[in-house]
Amino acid sequence: MRSGRATAGGGRVVGVPGDGEDAFGVSPADVVRHARSIDDVAHGVDGARRAALTVELGRAAYGILCAELPTLFDPLQHGAVDAFRDAADALSRTADDLRNAADGYQVADQSSADLMPDG
């Protein structure tokens, strides 16, 4: 890979055509590091989903007069479990997409470097 500027995280910046205002750089290592952070958040959200599945409101907790309250709460609980699942899935997909983008930057940068004459 062509060497670019170093980043604070120790990675190399790729895709830097120059130092003009239109230039940009991406550190694939930083992108992958960010993807790992998103994986951690996805794992936490999935933990919340698993916890929500284990909690069940029993009728006895509300007494005879309010025994039907858990029936009212069931749709809310199922909605929360579904929302946690969807959020964890979306976060995992985002982390995967970031890793794919980092790979794409590295491949494109190497392809461009291979086209450059030595010297």
From TrEMBL:
GO terms for biological process, alphabetical: protein secretion
Pfam families: T7SS_ESX_EspC
Residue numbers spanned by region Disordered: 1-21
Xref: InterPro entries: EspC (IPR022536)
Lineage: superkingdom: Bacteria
Protein name: ESX-1 secretion-associated protein
Source species of the chain: Cryptosporangium phraense
Lineage: Bacteria, Bacillati, Actinomycetota, Actinomycetes, Cryptosporangiales
